[in-house]
């Protein structure tokens, strides 16, 4: 008896479902993102279009936001890849309702609203709070390095910047003299009415590079001046550092270390040690609620260290949800006597590591009473058990972002812009996390 196969007729005309919502199975992530965004206040996304009378109708901002959030939640970050998905992927077509914005339109929409994604992020976590997916009983804070949209090979140290500045300045000066000599010779041969004032292409290139080097050098010096001022040093103070043992400072006020680097592609990013070695990165901060691992605050810095970020992140949590967390967990990168005292003042039960054994001898910790109290708390059985929860609360979320979503590098440049994209990443991560939890409830 011959085998009967299921019908297969690729050239047959098909009558698709009359409603786009019937193209995907019930409970699909795209439906959840669609429903949540429909409930949000997106006035800031519509404001640029108010009363401008443009003839060509723009794409619906709510539709664009749905597509962009779903793209990030499904691990698609490139505007070109998103545009391709709109043609090939059913979920994207459902959210876009058969609109097909080009990649440039998607890219421009993202850039235009980078500062607005924070407000959407906050609205979503407030929805999670109302749905009892956020309790703020315990919050774990952690940082992760995310690569900037720049190559570390496009950076130069302060020492080399100084050398290159001198070398290029000499070359530009020599070429200018040659150009003036050529002009004088041409004036003698062809008369003074001949223009002959165009800069040679080689001179233009060197001058442009010299300007970039001077700008990079100025940025490093300004950053060092700000750092020196923050330490209480004055521009006329080159004597012994306060509490120091040496006779004088190693460098004059505002003079960076020879190894300090500036990147030409994204000057606001920094060289940081990551899992992939030293890379041009930003330091992305997360505060994650314990109960359902929802991100309740995020922040982005260009500092490789986490020290000093703890209180700002906690303040952001309180501003977002109008509630103070009962307890906080963080690794040794956040240890700081001032932070410990402030946490005690805010009545927040904290468990923050002090580093490996041997790094903080008793004679040092006794000089800092809040640090000593933290050490005693962590030494107890309850303290060890509480701190042990940190890894599966916050580090797991960083793992989802980098391994599940695949977000490892920013698409934009500059601290403000990358901060907006990090808001978008955290927003997409929360929605992806909330969808199955809302179904269970």
Notes on the structure:
- The chain is of the alpha/beta class and 441 residues long.
- It has 3 domains: 20-112, no CATH class; 132-151 and 268-418, Nucleotidyltransferase, domain 5 (2-Layer Sandwich); 155-263, no CATH class.
- Helices cover 49% and strands 11% of the residues.
- The chain has helices at 29-38, 43-46, 61-73, 79-88, 90-96, 103-112, 117-130, 158-190, 201-230, 310-321, 337-345, 362-365, 369-379, 381-388, 390-404, 415-440; strands at 138-147, 155-157, 261-263, 270-274, 277-289, 295-301, 327-330, 349-352.
- The strands form 2 sheets. Strands 1, 4, 5, 6, 7 and 8 form a 6-stranded mixed β-sheet that branches.
- A hairpin with a 5-residue loop joins strand 5 and strand 6.
- It is globular.
Topology readout:
Elements (H helix, E strand, L loop, with lengths): L28 H10 L4 H4 L14 H13 L5 H10 L1 H7 L6 H10 L4 H14 L7 E10 L7 E3 H33 L10 H30 L30 E3 L6 E5 L2 E13 L5 E7 L8 H12 L5 E4 L6 H9 L3 E4 L9 H4 L3 H11 L1 H8 L1 H15 L10 H26 L1
Parallel strand pairs: 1-7, 7-8
Antiparallel strand pairs: 1-5, 2-3, 4-5, 5-6
As a whole number of angstroms, the C-alpha radius of gyration is 28 Å
Hey, roughly how much beta strand do the residues contain? 5-15%
Class by helix and strand content?
Answer: alpha/beta
**What count of domains describes the coordinates?**
3
Tell me the number of helical segments per DSSP (H or I, 4 or more residues long).
16
Name the shape in a single word. globular
CATH names the topology of the largest domain as Nucleotidyltransferase, domain 5
Residue stretches low in confidence (pLDDT < 50, at least 5 long) are 187-194
- CATH uppermost class of the largest domain: Alpha Beta
CATH architecture of the largest domain: 2-Layer Sandwich
First CA to last CA: what distance? Answer: 51 Å
The SSE string, one letter per element, is HHHHHHHEEHHEEEEHEHEHHHHH
Count the beta strands: 8
Helix fraction, binned, reads 40-55%
* Main pleated sheet: 6 strands, mixed
**Whole-number average pLDDT?**
80
């Amino acid at each position: 008896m011959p085998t009967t196969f299921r019908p297969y007729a690729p050239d047959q005309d098909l009558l698709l479902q009359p409603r786009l919502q019937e193209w995907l199975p019930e409970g699909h992530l795209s439906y959840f993102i669609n429903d949540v965004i429909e409930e949000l206040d997106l006035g800031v996304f519509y404001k640029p279009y108010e009363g401008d009378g443009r003839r060509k109708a723009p794409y619906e901002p709510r539709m664009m936001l749905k597509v962009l959030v779903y793209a990030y939640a499904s691990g698609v970050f490139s505007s070109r890849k998103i545009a391709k998905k709109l043609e090939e992927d059913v979920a994207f077509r459902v959210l876009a309702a058969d609109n097909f914005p080009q990649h440039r339109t998607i890219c421009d929409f993202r850039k235009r609203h980078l500062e607005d994604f924070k407000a959407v992020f906050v609205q979503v976590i407030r929805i999670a709070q109302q749905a009892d997916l956020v309790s703020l009983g315990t919050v774990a804070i952690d940082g992760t390095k995310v690569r900037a949209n720049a190559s570390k090979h496009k950076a130069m140290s302060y020492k080399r910047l100084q050398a290159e500045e001198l070398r290029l300045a000499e070359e530009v000066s020599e070429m200018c003299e040659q150009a003036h000599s050529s002009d004088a010779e041409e004036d003698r041969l062809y008369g003074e009415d001949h223009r002959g004032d165009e800069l040679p292409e080689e001179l233009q290139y060197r001058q442009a590079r010299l300007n970039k080097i001077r700008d990079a050098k100025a940025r490093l010096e300004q950053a060092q001046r700000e750092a020196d001022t923050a330490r209480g040093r004055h521009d006329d103070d080159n004597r012994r550092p306060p509490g120091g043992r040496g006779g004088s400072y190693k460098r004059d006020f505002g003079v960076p270390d020879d190894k300090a680097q500036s990147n030409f592609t994204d000057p606001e990013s920094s060289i940081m040690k990551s899992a992939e070695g030293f890379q041009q990165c930003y330091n992305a901060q997360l505060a994650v609620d314990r109960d359902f691992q929802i991100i309740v605050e995020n922040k982005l810095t260009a500092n490789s260290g986490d020290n000093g970020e703890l209180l700002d992140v906690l303040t952001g949590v309180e501003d977002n949800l109008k509630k103070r967390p009962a307890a906080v967990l963080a690794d040794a990168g956040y240890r700081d006597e001032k932070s410990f005292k402030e946490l005690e003042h805010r009545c927040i039960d904290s468990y923050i590591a002090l580093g490996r054994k041997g790094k903080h001898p008793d004679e040092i910790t006794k000089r800092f009473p809040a640090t000593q109290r933290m050490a005693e708390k962590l030494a107890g059985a309850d303290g060890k058990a509480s701190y042990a929860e940190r890894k599966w609360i916050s580090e797991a979320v960083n793992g989802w972002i980098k391994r599940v979503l695949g977000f490892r590098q920013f698409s934009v440049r500059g601290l403000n812009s990358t901060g907006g994209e990090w808001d978008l990443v955290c927003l997409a991560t929360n929605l992806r996390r909330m969808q199955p939890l809302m179904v269970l409830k």
